[in-house]
């Protein structure tokens, strides 16, 4: 009965969003989304940072613990978007950014100019699953926030993370995830998912990202589930933490 209810409500949502699905069927939506999405993320991450500032400060408070032999923290951020995390990184940190959407770059340049406490190395137009520009074992820390929800393969991106991290390096993450299956939040996540996936550039509402992290062969996994203080309840279930290679 529950499955039928979800199917009917999901169908109703899809009917309401028919123009969006039509554009996607015609092969037009992806190009529109790639140009529109950075403007949305600029506004969204401003509000997200306000609501999640204490959690981000807590998460990134021990980045310096992973400084390598060079004495300078070498950090790679995957899916850097508009550079919303930059202000939380420690002074003198050497930052390499990657994102598969070239339309983020102009917002990223502005964020770089506003965060002079960091040393920016380069911007890579690349997905996290395939970064041949980054040498094996060259990074002390890799960071991604609100990225694992939309990557094509969580397993491949975590393989790349392990490849580019030096031994003893760490991967920091902050992600929205699927709610517990018995909750109303999960009920609405299932209903909204097809529409949400298209509108927000392949973002999955129902991914259990903690399973991929726990199965990625890191030597240590420190992971916390929590409810983020956000207005959009379907993305309140979150995980955060770090893994060590």
TrEMBL record:
Keyword Cell inner membrane applies: no
Record Pfam families: Methyltransf_11
Keyword Acetylation in record: yes
Any one GO molecular function term: S-adenosylmethionine-dependent methyltransferase activity
Coiled-coil ranges from the UniProt annotation: none
Residues making up the signal peptide according to the UniProt record: none
Domain of life: Eukaryota
Family matches, as InterPro entries: Methyltransf_11, SAM-dependent_MTases_sf, Thiol_S-MT
Keywords annotated in UniProt: Acetylation
Boundaries of every Methyltransferase type domain copy: 76-173
Protein name: Methyltransferase-like protein 7A isoform X1
Organism, scientific name: Zalophus californianus (California sealion)
Gene designation per UniProt: METTL7A
């Amino acid at each position: 009965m529950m499955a039928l209810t979800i199917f009917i409500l999901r169908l109703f949502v899809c009917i309401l969003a028919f123009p969006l699905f039509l554009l996607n069927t015609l092969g037009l939506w992806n190009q529109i989304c790639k140009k529109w999405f950075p403007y949305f993320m600029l506004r969204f991450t401003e509000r997200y940072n306000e609501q999640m500032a204490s959690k981000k400060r807590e998460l990134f408070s021990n980045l310096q613990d992973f400084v390598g032999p060079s004495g300078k923290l070498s950090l790679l951020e995957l899916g850097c978007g508009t550079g919303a995390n930059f202000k939380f990184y420690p002074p003198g940190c050497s930052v390499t950014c990657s994102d598969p959407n070239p339309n983020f770059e102009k917002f990223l340049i502005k964020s770089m100019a506003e965060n002079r406490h960091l040393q920016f190395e380069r911007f890579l137009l690349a997905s996290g699953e395939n970064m041949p520009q980054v040498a094996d074992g060259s990074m002390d820390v890799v960071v991604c926030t609100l990225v694992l929800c939309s990557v094509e393969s969580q397993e491949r991106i975590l393989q790349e993370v392990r490849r580019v991290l030096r031994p003893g390096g760490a991967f920091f993450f902050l992600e929205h995830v699927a709610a517990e299956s018995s909750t109303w939040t999960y009920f609405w996540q299932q209903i909204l998912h097809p529409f949400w996936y298209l509108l927000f550039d392949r973002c999955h509402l129902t991914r259990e990202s903690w399973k991929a992290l726990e199965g990625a062969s890191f030597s240590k996994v420190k992971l916390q589930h929590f409810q983020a203080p956000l207005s959009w309840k379907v993305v309140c279930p979150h995980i955060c933490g770090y893994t060590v290679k």
